Amino acid sequence: MKLSKLFTKTIKNPPADETAKNAKLLIQAGYIHKEMAGVYAYLPLGLRVVEKIKNIVREEMNAIDGQELIMTNLQPKDLWETTSRWDDEVVDVWFKTKLKDDSEVGLAWSHEEPIMRMAEKYISSYKDLPASVYQFQTKLRNELRAKSGIMRGREFLMKDMYSMHASAEDLDEYYEKVKVAYQKIYQRLGIGDDTYVTFASGGAFTKFSHEFQTICEAGEDVLYVNREQNIAVNEEVLEEAIKEFGIKRDQLEKVKSAEVGNIFNFGADKSETMDISFTDQDGSSKPIHLASYGIGITRVMGVLAEKLADEKGIVWPENVAPYRVVICALGDEPEVTKQADELYDKLVSSKVEVLYDDRDLRPGQKFSDADLLGIPYRLVVSKKNLDSGKIEIKKRTETEPKILDIDDILEVLVA
RNA sequence: CGGGGUGUGGCGCAGUUGGCUAGCGCGCCGCGUUUGGGACGCGGAGGUCGAAGGUUCAAGUCCUUUCACCCCGACCA
Q: pTM here?
């Protein structure tokens, strides 16, 4: 992609109507556009990041036999009445609207009830279990107050997976597999070392749920962690957890964190409430055991932007960066342009995702933008290095560039 | 939803106790000179000052209502 052709451009001043670092940076660099409070558009660069994150999640879900599907954003009232969750008193984040015939529909804030209705249709025998399905879907939640940029919006992209099992034991076994898969995901996203499985409140169905919390100053949660023992407890259940698990409080460090994933074991409750069952081996009718597993895709993107940024801008992990490398061509001498063009063509044909800053700008502006955008590698083509035939390469996370042959650069970038 | 703050070209801002054609920086368009960390000259375009109503000879500035955005709290499967 040539920067001169990119739909977006960077802006020199961050927007005044944002305080959250993630939103300031992402807007300034042209990754997202704020449509209204808590509602953001994902621009060409931003969409590439979203897709990178989705693909990592997708690979790990597929690896544990998750099957991708996509549910609907419009949801019928009667479905949610089966669990008494249509009522605004019970669920206060509903967006609701009406069809032309005046019947009410809800806009998806969760897909737990819809997945169970589908289970009713496709799960009738123990032979149909276990089953695990997931989707990437836009969730709409009428939050009283949106905040923290894309970390807590009214419209956001979420991966939600649901697993259904014939027994509690089978569910537990799968639940542990998902935990491991999640840890792999956060590792690949570059925040593995600061992400903890934590005990959190379990809501209506279970005493504790498990949250995946990433240490992050901008987060909304407070965590008590023991890094050596890899224990983390959400503040909201600290006292209970200490009692229940015999954790020593003075060995816990208090940190701020952001929830990047949440998994729930519903047990058989949902199935019983909705009166959905399957026929077991012995011919008896039994409820389906259900668990749900969520990852806020756009929230994770916000956490990455927020947590890994430095004073110059975003610093994307290599696995999620919209492009792997940016070429800065300095000056407009024909030889420089020629070498930069050739380098660009070579990288493109080697399947390296490359941004080419071919704009007629001064070096400082190109460097600043390369930093702001957070592209992992920067190549500089200028008359300075022209004669040697070598190219300058610098990582976003380092300050000193290296001068390498084109072949060596390709080796670094294609890897 | 309670409390606090802010709305002036695309972005960031200034605008005295109401007073004349509403300014500045960036960005944008044209021409030229520039090119290793956000250059410069010359010439341009772009704003019913969030909206509605009111006070006044006169409103960006005062009053009322309203909308939007941000922060704190509450809330958060």
A: 0.96
